[in-house]
Write a structure and sequence with these properties.
Blueprint: E1 2-3, E2 6-7, H1 11-19, H2 44-47, E3 50-53, E4 57-63, H3 65-69, E5 89-95, E6 97-106, H4 107-116, H5 124-147, E7 157-161, E8 171-173, H6 182-197, E9 203-207, H7 208-215, H8 218-224, H9 238-245, E10 249-253, E11 256-258, E12 268-270, E13 277-280, E14 294-299, E15 308-314, E16 321-334, E17 340-344
Parallel strand pairs: 3-14, 7-8, 7-17, 9-10
Antiparallel strand pairs: 1-2, 4-5, 6-16, 9-13, 11-12, 13-17, 14-16, 15-16
């Protein structure tokens, strides 16, 4: 490596030159155009509770809802006793599969960054670690979309139609239509879930286009128009929707991904159906005395208590390479149809 007419032979001298403003290459070290997603865009683990498990496969109990909801208390006969009440149950299974991603690092090329001792935007270890974490979060959202936020997953499913059409028992007027009544619609869905699942729904998950249609709906805007000021005009956001619909939380699914195969032109899409919506009751944490519409079972495949992590290992001798891997083991499972309702074609 040379600098100002002579070779820089020591790491100490290199550090002195860097301190004086000399750069070891022509690339900026404080910025890059890296299209990593904002971590807050990924929401898979925020919708359904994480349930750590000791084994990759196993069973869990499902108590019969009918037995728990039936009035078994009877008048005691004189000198006798009532028949024992039935409290039946069945079981179901989970199976956590291990997913992996591996990326390589050229150890020879990495020497430049080690000697420079600066945090360049293209530092191979830093960028690959960020890449692995981002890939794992993206994969979780893709799994979430397939297992939970999709047509044909839930027993209770409604379809949006245009106004002027006779709505069937499982249809509703699209939220992008000013003639729709979102509050009455969700009140009816909440009633159904409360009646059949014995819990009031607490989470509403919205596709990107569904959220935009709701926040511009004239009926909802009318309800909040007097709550604003010149400095802070009234608007419909996730918090306002949660209050209007009577749920604890509203989540918007706005994470994106490239669905094109490698070598093909990019085809960017929202990970979850942008015109969908999912109303659910879910527990904040795993519980033996509470139901939940779904769970994300997680298994620490390496026995270190982490179900998602990274590791580094050396490549084959003579290749002067090393590899970083990401591992995670999950099973996203629908656990109760009665505690969820999916809406398709909301806009």
């Amino acid at each position: 490596m040379s600098g100002i007419g002579r070779t820089v032979n020591s790491a100490a001298e290199l550090q002195v030159r860097i301190a004086k403003g000399w750069k070891p290459n022509r690339y900026l070290t404080n910025m890059s155009m890296a299209f990593f997603s904002n971590a807050s865009d990924y929401v898979a683990t925020h919708i359904f509770p994480i349930c750590p498990v000791d084994f990759s496969t196993g069973y869990y109990y499902i108590y019969n809802k009918g037995d728990l909801a039936r009035d078994h208390v009877q008048r005691k006969p004189k000198f006798g006793k009532v028949a024992p009440a039935q409290m039946g149950y069945r079981d179901d299974t989970y199976k956590c599969e291990v997913d992996q991603i591996i990326v390589g690092i050229d150890s020879i090329s990495a020497v430049n960054y080690q000697r420079a001792n600066v945090p360049p935007s293209i530092d191979p270890r830093r960028t690959r670690n960020r890449f692995i974490v981002d890939q794992q979060l993206l994969h979780l959202d893709v799994m979430f979309a397939k297992r939970f936020f999709h047509v044909g997953v839930w027993k209770n499913e409604y379809e949006g139609i245009v106004s002027g059409t006779t709505a069937g028992s499982s249809q509703f007027i699209k939220f992008s239509d000013a003639n729709s009544d979102p509050i009455s619609f969700f009140d009816a869905r909440k009633r159904e879930i409360k009646l059949n699942g014995r819990r009031m729904p607490n989470k509403l998950t919205l596709g990107y286009d569904t959220f935009n249609a709701l926040k511009e709906h004239p009926d909802l805007l009318e309800r909040v128009k007097y709550t604003g000021s010149t400095a802070n005009p009234a608007k419909v956001n996730e918090r306002v929707l949660a209050e209007l619909f009577g749920v604890e939380e509203v989540k918007v699914l706005d994470a994106t991904y490239n669905m094109a195969e490698e070598g093909q032109p990019d085809q960017m899409q929202f990970i979850c159906e942008p015109d969908g919506a999912l109303l659910t009751y879910t527990t904040a944490n795993p519980s033996i005395d509470e139901p939940s519409a779904g769970y994300i079972f997680t298994w620490d495949m390496l026995g270190n208590g982490n179900w998602m992590g990274t590791d580094v290992f050396e490549g084959e001798g003579g290749t002067h390479s090393e590899f970083m891997e990401g591992l995670m083991s999950t099973d996203m499972k629908k656990t109760c149809d009665d505690l969820a309702c999916y809406m398709k074609g909301c806009v």
